[in-house]
Amino acid sequence: DADVTQTPRNRITKTGKRIMLECSQTKGHDRMYWYRQDPGLGLRLIYYSFDVKDINKGEISDGYSVSRQAQAKFSLSLESAIPNQTALYFCATSDGQRQYTGELFFGEGSRLTVL
Amino acid sequence: GNSVTQMEGPVTLSEEAFLTINCTYTATGYPSLFWYVQYPGEGLQLLLKATKADDKGSNKGFEATYRKETTSFHLEKGSVQVSDSAVYFCALSSGGGADGLTFGKGTHLIIQP
Predict the structure, then answer these.
(1) Are B40 and A97 in contact (CB under 8 A)?
(2) Which of B45, B105, B106 lies at the smallest CB-CB distance from A106?
């Protein structure tokens, strides 16, 4: 089983719908992240969380919200999806003890299409 | 702010060719540098890393040396295989107040038999 699991892996939705992407991890890491991948743009950070009570905006947080329900779970929500949020979304984790190396562990991605 | 610039792709090579993918960075302080690889349909996985100047990261025949004087971390492999076809991302971590990694745009590598 994967250490970082994302659900759903694929989702097609319509403009204006609310969407939640979920991420759970068994690595015991304290830090979790949501990235978005677009062709030609690489990965961009949406939100990150150092622990359950600490949520931080990343580079492109507008139009997104997150919830850290437990140390192992970090959800990304699109309150009202729009077509330019069509992308591949990745959850990642890191061990806070390795803060100065910054190595991340990624899930397999959630492909979201907004029509 | 931090940024990473890597060569545009796709890069197409024949099997057993020599590979170089250039990566340069801009960062404050002393960042750690990474190469991640993304195989088709999968998430990113760490390929190699270097945490200080002149360090050489290596894995699976790939190498990259942290060059502070040229702010570079170029990825090299002496003889590529078809199985190396993937998207390669250069990234840095500043370890400062903002966490996570800053990624380059990715280089799509295609190896032809």
Answers:
(1) no
(2) B45
Out of B34, B43, B92, the one facing A108 most closely (by C-beta) is: B43
User: Out of A40, A48, A56, whose CB is closest to B105?
Assistant: A40
What size, in residues, is chain B? 113
Mutation test of the interface with chain B: which of A33, A57, A60, A104, choosing the one with the most B Cβ atoms within 10 A? A104
B13-68 pLDDT, tens per residue?
999 999 999 999 999 888 889 999 999 888 899 999 998 899 999 999 999 999 99
How far A40 CA sits from the closest chain B CA (Å)?
6
Within chain A, strands assigned E span: 4-7, 10-13, 19-25, 31-38, 42-51, 54-57, 65-70, 73-78, 87-94, 105-106, 110-114
3-state secondary structure A11-35: EEECCCCCEEEEEEECCCCCEEEEE
Contact indicator for B82, B95 with CB cutoff of 8 Å: no
Q: Kindly report, residue by residue over A1-39, the tens digit of the pLDDT.
A: 679 999 999 999 999 999 999 999 999 998 999 999 998
